[in-house]
Amino acid sequence: MPHIELKYSDDLLINADEIFEVIENVINQHDSSSGVCKGRAYPTGLYKHTHILISLSLLEKPHRDDNFSQELINKLEKEVKKIIQQDCYFSLSLNYNLSYYITNQHHVEKSC
Fold first, then answer.
1. Which one of 59, 73, 85, 106 has the minimum C-beta count within 10 Å?
2. Where are the domains of the chain?
3. 64 and 58 Cβ atoms separated by less than 8 Å
4. pLDDT of residue 37
């Protein structure tokens, strides 16, 4: 399950949910085994220069090689920038979690 984090200056008028959807769609077009993406957005009022930093984490898999990664990050940059309607500094990071990373769901049984 990929994970998206958006960190941005709060003068940047963006729709974080829309960015989450676009990123999830691009990833799944590129790799249908990816599934849903978790996402968090962190706007901040304390910053220098209008900017956005998008960090995307995926699990390592054999088919996610250099070519896959470069195509994915190029497509993500293109599609996300279509949404941003202001000048800003833009950063996008694609990271791979190592083998010793757990991602799953935690369910709590409810008693009657």
1. 106
2. 3-97
3. yes
4. 93
CATH architecture of 3-97: 2-Layer Sandwich (3.30)
- Residues 59, 63: Cα–Cα separation, whole Å: 11
- Under DSSP, the state recorded for 105 is -
Nearest alpha carbon to residue 9 among 47, 62, 39, 40: 47
Spatial CA neighbour of 82 closest among 35, 7, 25, 5 = 25
Angle at 101 between CA 2 and CA 97, to 5 degrees: 55
Rounded Cα distance between 6 and 22, Å, is 13
What is the DSSP annotation of 53-67? EEEEEEE--TT--HH
Pairing of strands 3-9, 51-59: antiparallel
